[in-house]
Structure to design on (289 residues):
């Protein structure tokens, strides 16, 4: 099957995603919570303990309003979307939970789970980026195709994928909402992972806005360029060589180099010094000390 000719959502997937079910309609059913198993293609990686406790408390009071989306696998139910609700329900001590059962083939499981989580805004930016990467890597989608499948623009997908280039420590900060995507984009302009982490911690400690971070990064980059110019190895070598030649010939010597070529300049103050230089160049500089 040619992937490029597939519709915006997989066969039957669009229809599945349009089915919004609540506990009150006839499609939901109650099952033992222990019959549910996590999704093998779960795009969600982290589950914030504090948020999970809050959801658990809400479920104790109000129950589960939105059923957990599952598919039948043998005698059990594999969670497609709603693992956070399932975990919170277990913490709340529920024995039964409401579910809806969908017919989703293996090749669309990851895609369905991803779209469902994105529509519910349950993924943090790093989880979203990894899910996009999985769609591209496992299903061989291009960024254009990934964008089409999840209802995002290609630049949005590309920018989210770029977050995965950041050090794991910074990815954790983004997952925990300590850094925004705006902060992350600015940090990506720094080449050194160590410097990226250093500046990221500075952002958190000083509560820098994205604009303030841009100013800080510009300062660092300007300082780096200036330092690079000052410490250019070629410049240092030419300066050192000029000083040694000045001592050897007892007259000021300049070396102006660019790339592999350059100019060697001997200064003289009168005809007598020029004559000495001329004679010396024929036999070599005088040895001192």
């Amino acid at each position: 099957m040619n992937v490029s000719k597939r519709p915006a959502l997989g066969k039957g997937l669009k229809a599945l995603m349009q089915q919004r079910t609540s506990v009150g309609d006839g499609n939901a059913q109650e099952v033992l919570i222990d019959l549910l198993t996590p999704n093998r293609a779960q795009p969600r990686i982290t589950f914030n303990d504090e948020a999970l406790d809050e959801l658990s408390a809400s479920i104790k009071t109000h129950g589960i309003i939105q059923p957990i989306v599952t598919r039948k696998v043998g005698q059990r139910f594999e969670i497609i979307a709603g693992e956070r609700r399932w975990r919170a329900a277990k913490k709340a001590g529920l024995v039964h939970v409401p579910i809806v059962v969908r017919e989703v083939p293996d090749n669309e499981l990851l895609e369905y789970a991803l779209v469902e989580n994105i529509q519910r805004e349950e993924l943090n930016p790093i989880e979203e980026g990894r899910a996009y990467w999985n769609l591209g890597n496992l299903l061989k989608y291009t960024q254009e195709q990934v964008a089409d499948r999840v209802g995002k623009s290609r630049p949005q997908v590309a920018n989210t994928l770029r977050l995965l280039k950041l050090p794991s420590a910074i990815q954790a900060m983004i997952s925990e909402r300590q850094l925004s995507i705006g902060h992350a984009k600015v940090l990506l302009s720094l080449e050194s992972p160590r410097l990226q982490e250093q500046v990221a911690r500075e952002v958190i400690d000083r509560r820098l806005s994205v604009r303030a971070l841009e100013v800080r990064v510009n300062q660092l980059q300007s300082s780096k360029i200036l330092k690079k110019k000052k410490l250019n190895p070629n410049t240092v070598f030419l300066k050192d060589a000029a000083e040694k030649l000045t001592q050897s010939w007892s007259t000021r010597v300049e070396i102006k180099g660019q790339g592999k070529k350059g100019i060697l300049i001997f200064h003289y103050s009168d005809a007598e010094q020029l004559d000495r230089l001329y004679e010396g160049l024929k036999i070599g500089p005088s040895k001192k000390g």
